[in-house]
Each structure stands twice: as C-alpha cells, then as structure tokens.
Amino acid sequence: MHIDVRSDWLSYVDQVPRALVAANTVTSLDALEQSSRHQHQKAQLLLTVRGVINCEVEDAVWIVPPQCAVWIPGGLPHTAFGSGEVECISLFIEPPATLALPSKCCTITVSPLLRHLLMRANELTERYHVDGPDGRIVSVILDELAAAPVEDLRLPIPSDPRLRKLTDLLIAAPADHATVAQWASRIALSERSLSRMLAEEVGMSFGRWRRQLHIVLALRHLSAGQTVQAVAMDLGYESASSFVTMFRKMVGKPPSRYLLERLRPASLDHGQR
Question: Looking at residues 232-247, what average pLDDT do you find?
C-alpha cells in the first residue's frame, strides 16, 4: 500500500490556517509500495483502521497496528507504507505551542473515544469554524492526543553500513538460529564490536533488537491473517507457546488478545459505515 503524498497537496495543507486539516477520505489500497521520502510543516497523524502501517524515519521504523496511530512531527523527513490491505485516516495537525504533544515520531494507542473523534474530524471541511462545534471537536482531539499512551512499536535502524547489512540479513532470514558471533562474522565484525556498536547506535543488545524485529514481522503477518502457529514457525520458534511467551514479554499481552482488542473496534466501525 502506497500512502499518497503529492507535493502540491502537502504545500496546500501547510497553508490552510487551521489546527487540523483532514484528507477527507479513508485510504484503502492492496499493493505494497513505499512512498518517496518527504516532509511537511504540519505534523501528521495516521490512524490505522485495518491492516498495519509502517512509518520509516532516518533511524527507525514505526509499526502501527489496527486502532493505533503514528504521530509524525512537522518537518521530519519520512516515508509511509502499508503491509497488505490497509485502511487509514490521515490528518495534518498544527497544535498550539501551549500543548505538550510529542516532539518525536511515536506510535499512539487510540481509545474508542479518540477513534470516533478522529473519524468525525476526517469529515470536517478544510476551513471549519474555529469557534463553533467543529472547533471544539478539534480542541478535544488535541487534548486526547496529548494524554494518549505511547506504545514501543519501534525498530531502531542503525546508521553504520555494516549494521544496516545485518538488519537486511535478519529480515531476509528471521528464522536463522545463528549465534551472535556468527552474525557478527557475516558482517566482518567481532562479537564484542557488534555488541558495542548496537548499544551505541540503537541502545539495545543484539537479543533485544532481534526480538523487536520479530515483533515487527509478527504484527505484519498476524494482521494479514496468518495464524500464531504459522508466524511462530516462520520466525524460527520451536513452538507457538515459546513465541507467545516472547510476544507477551515484549508487548505485555499475548498476540491473540493484543489483536482482538484492536480488530474488534475496527469491525464495529465497519459495520456502522
């Protein structure tokens, strides 16, 4: 899925004198295609209604499962693309300076109230009446965004070319059970150097970083309809239970419960449209 980002549209959005500008559509595309890197003055909020959105910035990939949103601060170069069939809502936001909204890219948990407010905001006219009901809706949205919890669904991407090569190798063979020393050897590093560089660049051990990658891949495949058993096997776990244990430790919930809590509200919304 390609998130359309025409430069003329982005320039126009930045000039609209409103705190929130909606794309006025729910995007639904099937193809997986990465957009070109771009940026805009206003911040962008992408709400995933169905599927998984990936937002890539210079040093990380942010994963956005159903009923979550990614917050992209204004002026931050990024790309956005979807995994499989995806539906999303795109809002451009220029928050007041007095409101403490995130200064860095992050994944936000969207409550049922905030989700319905965002869907309502998607129907606003571009130059809504600031002092009327629409303006009050936008004010509540901004307050809810400032209070929304942030999820750690980020895969740090190192800048060193050898570590980037390692990232590609791990993504290509997620089930490979090679030791840390063997992975280091494949990119012409010692085990000690690999561990030191990862700690410096991504702030994680090799094991933690690889588990985070597995969470990213698992969410993509599970949201596309694959079973927990199939995903566990694809990622190289001996059993579904060992994969579920890892997922629970990293995310706080088993994968079935995690997705159920996000897919159920999406199904209800679809039924109402």
Answer: 96
